[in-house]
Amino acid sequence: RDKLPEYNTFKDAVELFRKSKNILILTGAGVSVACGIPDFRSKNGIYARLHKDFPELPDPSSMFDIDFFKKNPAPFYNFAREIFPGQFTPSLSHMFIKFLEESGKLLRNYTQNIDTLEKIAGIQKVIECHGSFSKSTCLSCKNEVDSEEIREDVLAQKISYCKKCKTGIMKPNIVFFGEDLGDDFHEQISEDIDKVDLLVVIGSSLKVQPVALIPFNIDPDVPQILINRELLPHYQSDIKLLGNCDDIILALSMAIGGEIKDEMVQELHKRVITTSNLET
Ligand code: OAD
């Protein structure tokens, strides 16, 4: 993909956010790191730790491999409580996406994350490409329940069995390696791909397909921005903004101005703890 000559700088990024009306935001684990959820592939990420804690795993990502899970769900259940929803608050990056949506600029947020923080932030135009923890299904009888029903087992690090058939293993509705992404992903992306006027990748290594292919499948004249801690050697966006995504998003919001800036300032105010709102 040839670089679009006119877009390179932070200022260009601000202009693009101001003028675009159909922004596609592709997010990965990096947007939830500030919330306390580690990413997968960084030095201190989930895979590095799994490698140490579960040497029996053929590969750290086997924990999310459907064939491995069917044979041995214990490592997944040992680990799942760390990322189980209900313990985390959306980051400034999630809130920025919500504010883009409110100002009519968001085409769609494609998230690879399973932490449900987009929905908690109130984003409606979101596709959870890799599913989420919100529901769980019995591998044997296919009984589907709200994941609140497996919370106790997850928090106790116990394998959760189906309350209906009693023997089947419960699996959160996350897309494991070896499983297809849902129809909602395939249908929505084929509709959105021709509408997008700005693509923004935030906090992803773009290593897992098919989501990682999205930037390569849109019209090469559509500008692309990467907001990430590191460069991605296999992906050339027009603009690269490197650092912690919340810092970059905050700087962008202030520079974009208007509603987005006002909303972000209000969000920051909500996050300030003063002695008057501390519980005594
Ligand atoms: P990765 O862990 O592969 O990549 C996270 C990216 O975010 C890396 O490039 C980090 O440098 C960057 N990053 C980390 N913290 C950041 C921060 N505060 N600000 C900006 N960037 C930051 O995670 P994903 O790309 O999301 O699948 O991984 C894709 C899929 O692989 C996941 O959805 C998961 C995994 O296997 C399932 O859970 C099914």
From TrEMBL:
Origin superkingdom: Eukaryota
The keyword Transferase is annotated on this UniProt entry: yes
Subcellular location: Nucleus
Residue runs in coiled coils: none
Limits of the Deacetylase sirtuin-type domain: 3-280
EC class: transferase
Gene Ontology MF terms in the entry: histone deacetylase activity, NAD-dependent; metal ion binding; NAD+ binding; p53 binding; transcription corepressor activity
Family: Belongs to the sirtuin family. Class I subfamily.
Name used for this protein in its record: NAD-dependent protein deacetylase sir-2.1
Organism: Acrobeloides nanus
Residues shown, of full length: 107 to 386 of 549
